[in-house]
Every structure is written in C-alpha cells, then in structure tokens.
Amino acid sequence: MLYPLKFQPILKDKIWGGNKLKSIFNKAAETDKLGESWELSGYENDESVVTNGFLAGNNIAELIEIYMGELVGEKNFDEFGHTFPLLFKLIDANQNLSIQVHPNNEVAIERHNTLGKTEMWYVVDAEEDGKLVIGFSKDCTQETYLEALENDQVENLLQSISVKKGDVFFIPAGLVHAIGKGVVIAEIQQSSDITYRIYDYKRVDDNGNERELHTEQALDVIDFKASINPKTSYQVVENQISPLVSCEFFTTNMLKFDKAITRNYGSIDSFVVYMCLEGSFVLICNDEKLNVNKGETILIPACINEIDLIPDNEAILLEVYI
User: Fold this and answer.
1) Class of 241-321 in CATH
2) Are 60 and 40 in contact (CB under 8 A)?
3) pTM for this one?
C-alpha cells in the first residue's frame, strides 16, 4: 500500500548561491555556494529518490511506472504519463540572479519538446534590502526593449519590488523576472528547465566571458505589458487553508496551524505535496506516523484520501496539487 513519501533533496551548487539553505533548512552541503535544493523532481536525470519506508531507494519515475494513477491521480497520469508534472525547489540568491523569461507550453514543446514553465514564489526569507524583478513598470515595445538592451539600460524598464517573508508572486510563462540578492524562496513550477536569459548585469566568469543571452528566442515569448501589482494578496486564517495561487498547472494553499488538522483529498484526483517551511508536525495516515520537519517536502499519493496533521507547536506548510 502506498504511503506519504519523503525524498532525498538534490542539492545544486550555483555561482550565485550561499549558505542560507543550510542555516535555515539544515540542508547538508559542503559548498558555500548552495543555490538550489530540488525538493521533489521528476526532471530527466534529476529524479528524486525516496528515503522512507519499503520504497526507499526508488525514484519518482520508477514509482509512476509501477503505481500510475494511484500515485499521481488518474487525470494526471492520462495527461502526463510517466512524467511527474511539477518541480519543487528552495532557492538561495546570495547574488542577483540573471533577468529571465520562460516560454509557455506551446513554444516549449515546439522548440524543446518539453513543458513550458509557469511558476510561483513564496518568500521564505529576505534581507532588509531584498528585491525581486517582476515584469515591466509600464507598457513596452520590442523596439524600446531592444534599444535598452543594446545600451545596457534594460533594468530601467523593469519593475523592482522590495519583498519580505511571506510575500507570494505568480510568475506565468512570458513574465520577465529575477530573484535579487538576499532573498530565499520556495518555488513551485511546471517540470521544465527551459530558461531564456535576457540580461546578466554584464557579469563575466573567471575567463572574462559574459554568460550567453537568449535575446532572439526570448523576443516572441516576453509579455511586454506593464505588470501591475504583481504581488499576490492573500489572507492567513490560522488552522484553516489559505488559498495562494490557483492556475491550470497547480493549486497552492498555505496552512498555518497550531492544533490538529484533518485534510480530506477524496475529491481532487491528484497527488498532494507539502513543503514544510516553519516548525514541524506529525502526519498520521492509516495509523502510520511520519515526523515532518522544517525544510522537508512530502508527497501524498493520490490514492490516500484522508490524513491528520498534528503540529509540535506551530507549523507553516505549502499544500500543492493539480
């Protein structure tokens, strides 16, 4: 019988990474440039491996092959087959990340034979001057954009937003964006690694070379309209589900709780993923108990209808399904 699954994080050394994923979430990495922890991934050559129970040692692709709709939900299996459709990350930007944009499904399938990339960010931690780049500050044209790019002025066209812990942003394909220095985020996205880099602050590597830009590929992908109020507003109601983002690719809720909660998923026909961002809790399913700590990500198979969550004190988690 399937049960709630824990996975080994896939840790990614990045030139812009730092130590916050180690200090905040206790990620075990020797590098001082830990940029990303892929918490749950079915991406090719980066498939997450189970660490608990009798399925320990199997990766997510192997589990979908065996359990199919029981694991991911019948409608998800019909649509995505043996591909796990979402990717869950924790990201530490110790330096400004490049400004980038992602293609939608149609373009990504045509050009790269892969899914597009719509995503969302939950700000886990931010230094006092932490910022994100989200979209254009006013409507723009391709001509204005290309001229600004040529003259190293593209930042002047974009919207820079100061952020704090708990802020949420929805980043559909086509929206130009970047994570700024000092910001740690939880990212939920379609399972895709297609990124068009449009600006990188003229930074050079150890050999004096600037990183490749994808100017031409990005042109017909970018949404040049002004991004008005890009921050997602939401209301936190303690011990109840607080909806954050719902789109065709995923639904994300937040749960801040300090007493026992029962969640019933009998009506959604989908796997459910928990990202524990604060505190810890015990997950009870079919009389089995699983301790979940801050920084851990749990997959609830679609065949499980009801679970109980009992916090140690107070816990905050993101709840995600399709």
Assistant:
1) mainly beta
2) yes
3) 0.96
Contacts of 123 by beta carbon, 8 Å cutoff, 6+ apart: 130, 163, 164, 165, 166, 167, 168, 183, 184, 185
Residue 126 makes CB contacts below 8 A (sequence gap 6+) with 163, 164, 165, 167, 182, 183, 184
Domain with CATH 2.60.120.10 in the chain: 5-219, 241-321
Residue whose structure tokens are 């931010």: 126
Q: Tell me: the pLDDT tens digits for 17-73?
A: 999 999 999 999 999 999 999 999 999 999 999 999 999 999 999 999 999 999 999
Residues 6+ apart with CB under 8 A from 2: 67, 70, 71, 301, 303, 304
pLDDT, tens only, 186-201 = 999 999 989 999 999 8
* Residue 197 designated active-site: yes
Q: Is 284 exposed, middle or buried (0-12, 13-18, 19+ CB in 10 A)?
A: middle
Helix, strand and coil percent figures for the chain, each rounded to 5: 15, 40, 45
Other CB atoms within 10 A of residue 262 CB: 9
How many other CB atoms are there within 10 angstroms of residue 185's CB atom? 24
Q: What is the CATH number of domain 5-219?
A: 2.60.120.10
Catalytic residue among 111, 197, 211, 263: 197
Q: Which residue from 51, 15, 20 is spatially nearest to 37, judged by alpha carbons?
A: 20
Q: Residue for token digits 């301790």? A: 291
